[in-house]
């Protein structure tokens, strides 16, 4: 029947383009190409153990696996509920394998985040085997619409999961969005925060092994590190970033 219709009246079928990594859909091919250029998808990104979707972080994987039922589009949540580890998010084929894994899979409990937890860089790193540290920053929003990212909390953790530096940070601009549902931060938390310049000096001192020569000595591990480093206004050799 379609062949007998006037071509001008035929329903136009739009072809959508899907990212093979994160499965986002785009109406135009050039938009997909631009997405691939800026998304930096990698085999090292966290992925859903069911559909293998690439996610930006493990928290994104957790959200994907625990999406509300009315928003669920696949069977990832159902499979994860039956055969997934709620801590490391791995999926197992058999129930006994999951049970055996859960007996081994554990993390040490996090230390409460106070206003500031600090060590002396030279004393904590001197003579130690520390070769890498992990960095995480929490951002609050500035500007009229709260879209300007400002560093409000910094934490450094060594490869034994020990917190070696943790502090709240005084944002440079007035905060218009504390993003509390994500950061857990309030105005009261930042009232006695450390100035950004001092935080930057402390973090860089740790990365340089307590030396004052400005030479990076440790691998720096984290998610979207370039963004965190940009908000800290800190530069670090790219070959030491993981």
From TrEMBL:
It comes from the Eukaryota. The keyword Membrane does not apply. The keyword Nucleotidyltransferase does not apply. Residues 17-46 form the C2H2-type domain. One of its GO terms (cellular component) is nucleus. One of its GO terms (molecular function) is zinc ion binding. This is Exonuclease RNase T/DNA polymerase III. The lineage of its organism: Eukaryota, Viridiplantae, Streptophyta, Embryophyta, Tracheophyta.
